[in-house]
Structures are given as structure tokens and as C-alpha cells.
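Lab meeting, item 3. Inverse folding demo.
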């Protein structure tokens, strides 16, 4: 009899495919987060630890990647589902990833947000408890229940205004984090003997999508 994938095994397979491995032991004090072209170390706060598993399940539900654009898409989708109202801290983390996505592929961020407007997220405490208790056997079951299964009651024009507000704030957050990080990197690179041209030359990346 073939083995049926469970939610836990699908999540473990996702971590292997993404190269994350198994996270065991104490949490690090910082975590590197994409902010534009940089991986900036930010505090690994308790809210991130609490919601990370469900954020990763959102990747599986939506099909968005773990690259910079994919992280922006899943964050836009989460904002569309109302993540900011579940936890402002969680919503702020979404804004950081959204800012990078807006710089790279703003139309895809809007499309993901609109998709989220018709979806539900896994972040409420009651839903997280149900997930942990095995209420949904696999990702397919979660997808049918949460992805584009709850048409928004709010007119799309108002949701567009909401998205515009998120986009504006996310770019302010982006520059507040990325600006000092860019200056620090340039000073460090030049101090280590690089020319100004070498320090500012963008590196080719394979992790956009």
C-alpha cells in the first residue's frame, strides 16, 4: 500500500528542497532577511519563531518560491489575507519582504495581494492549533480550505488603497533598513581594499525567484 504524504512530511520535503535542512536547538539571535540587494541581519524575534511554520505552509499553499520575489509574493498574499490585523509585528515583517518584491516585480506583488484578498491565512491561534492537531491531512486539504476560498466583502477599490498604504510604508521601512546597511557594506568593502567601482558593482544573483 503506497505511503500517503502527511502535512508534516510535505513540510519536511519543502525544507529539503529549499536547502533549509532541519532546524534543531536554540534559535540564533539574528536572521538574515532580504532587503533589496542585501541580506540584512535582523533580530530573530519571538513573533517570527511563533509564526514561521505557518508562513512556510503558506509557501506550499500558494506555490510562491523562497527567492526574493517569491518571499515578496507570499508576504503580499499574507497582507491581503489580513496578517496585519492578526499581529502588527507579523505584518511589519511582511512589509520588509514586500518592499523587495515591489522593487523587483511590483505587478506580481499586486496580483498576490489580490489573491490574498480572497483567501484566509493560518495565523489565528485557533487555526494554528487545528493545524497542529492534524485537522488537515495534507497541503491539498489546506489549499482547498484557505486558498481563494473566501471572496472579499470589501470593494477592490478600497483594497487597492490598502495595498497602496502597505506599499508606501514598506518602502519607508526598506530605506530605513537598507540605507544604513548599504553604507556599512561600502565602508567595509573599501576598507578591505576594494576600489569604489568594485564595492558598488552589483553581484549577479540566482535567487530572485
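The presenter then showed the designed sequence:
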Amino acid at each position: 500500500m503506497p505511503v500517503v504524504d502527511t502535512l508534516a512530511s510535505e513540510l519536511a520535503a519543502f525544507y529539503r528542497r529549499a536547502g533549509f535542512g532541519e532546524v534543531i536547538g536554540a534559535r540564533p539571535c539574528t536572521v538574515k532577511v532580504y532587503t533589496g540587494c542585501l541580506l540584512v541581519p535582523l533580530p530573530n524575534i519571538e513573533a517570527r519563531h511563533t509564526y514561521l511554520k505557518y508562513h512556510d505552509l503558506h509557501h506550499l499553499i500558494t506555490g510562491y518560491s523562497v527567492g526574493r520575489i517569491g518571499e515578496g509574493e507570499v508576504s503580499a498574499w499574507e497582507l491581503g489575507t489580513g496578517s496585519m490585523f492578526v499581529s502588527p509585528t507579523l505584518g511589519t515583517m511582511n512589509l520588509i519582504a514586500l518592499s523587495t518584491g515591489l522593487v523587483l516585480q511590483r505587478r506580481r506583488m499586486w496580483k498576490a495581494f489580490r489573491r490574498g484578498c480572497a483567501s484566509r491565512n493560518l495565523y489565528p491561534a485557533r487555526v494554528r492549533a487545528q493545524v497542529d492537531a492534524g485537522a488537515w491531512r495534507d497541503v491539498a486539504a489546506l489549499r482547498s480550505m484557505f486558498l481563494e476560498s473566501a471572496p472579499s466583502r470589501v470593494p477592490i477599490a478600497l483594497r487597492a488603497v490598502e495595498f497602496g498604504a502597505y506599499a508606501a510604508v514598506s518602502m519607508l521601512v526598506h530605506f530605513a533598513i537598507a540605507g544604513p546597511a548599504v553604507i556599512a557594506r561600502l565602508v567595509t568593502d573599501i576598507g578591505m581594499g576594494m576600489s569604489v567601482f568594485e564595492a558598488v558593482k552589483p553581484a549577479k544573483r540566482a535567487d530572485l525567484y
